[in-house]
Amino acid sequence: AQSVAQPEDQVNVAEGNPLTVKCTYSVSGNPYLFWYVQYPNRGLQFLLKYITGDNLVKGSYGFEAEFNKSQTSFHLKKPSALVSDSALYFCAVRALSGGSYIPTFGRGTSLIVHP
Amino acid sequence: DAGVIQSPRHEVTEMGQEVTLRCKPISGHDYLFWYRQTMMRGLELLIYFNNNVPIDDSGMPEDRFSAKMPNASFSTLKIQPSEPRDSAVYFCASSLLVGGSYEQYFGPGTRLTVT
């Protein structure tokens, strides 16, 4: 079975400071990993993904994520947070092969960026 | 492409009434998903289709819920009879998983309130 853990329900950061939203996963074999963002009263929006290759993945709105196979983590990062980054962030995982093609989502982490 | 389209955006109904939620996926996508989101339970996968065929409906809460996909461009989620505990935001998402980029594209959601 595949699973995702987002250990923090909420992350608070001051505008201009770096931010990290944590995600760890469990999957059989190699993973596909995703980050989505959900703004208030909107659907989830794809941010970035890791399939293969470079462990540092760059995505939309200046976000990036680092795949760490030994730690089974895929933390979302941004060097300088904006108030407009305040939203709900979801990590998701699916197996590369031999397992479910359907991604499993974490519970979500609420990011609050203070002016 | 206009993205995933859902209707209605808001639905308020009385307990016992039938509710039908509608979804138009992105053209060419081969998977369609129905999710439910609540504060208590987070994002739950209800059912998904591959090439219009239901593959896994194990997430459907009970027999009051049913979903159909009569063709590649339309799907419905029906609740009959509705109950107050069905109040949630229901999302439809589509994806191109075979030979595609794998991420899901979500609609704006239908906020259902059952009184």
Structure summary:
The complex is a heterodimer of chains A (115) and B (115). By secondary structure, chain A is mostly beta strands. Chain A has no helices and 12 strands.
Give the topology.
The complex is a heterodimer of chains A (about 120) and B (about 120).
Chain A: E1 3-5, E2 10-14, E3 19-21, E4 24-26, E5 31-38, E6 45-50, E7 56-58, E8 64-68, E9 73-78, E10 87-95, E11 104-105, E12 109-114
Parallel strand pairs in A: 2-12
Antiparallel strand pairs in A: 1-4, 3-9, 5-6, 5-10, 7-8, 8-9, 10-11, 10-12
Chain B: E1 5-7, E2 10-13, E3 19-24, E4 31-38, E5 42-50, E6 53-56, E7 65-71, E8 74-79, E9 88-95, E10 104-106, E11 110-114
Parallel strand pairs in B: 2-11
Antiparallel strand pairs in B: 1-3, 3-8, 4-5, 4-9, 5-6, 7-8, 9-10, 9-11
What is the terminal-to-terminal distance of chain B?
Answer: 36 Å
Principal-axis shape of chain A equals: globular
Shape of chain B: globular
H/E element sequence of chain B: EEEEEEEEEEE
Strand content of chain B: over 45%
End-to-end C-alpha gap of chain A:
41 Å
DSSP strand count of chain A? 12
Q: Number of DSSP helices of chain A?
A: 0
Structural class of chain A: mainly beta
Largest sheet of chain B: 7 strands, mixed
Major β-sheet profile of chain A: 6 strands, mixed
- Pair with the biggest interface: A-B, 19 and 20 residues
Radius of gyration of chain A: 14 Å
Indicate the multimeric state: heterodimer
Order of helices and strands of chain A: EEEEEEEEEEEE
Give the helix level of chain A as a range of percent.
under 10%
How much of the sequence lies in strands of chain A comes to: over 45%
Count of extended strands of chain B: 11
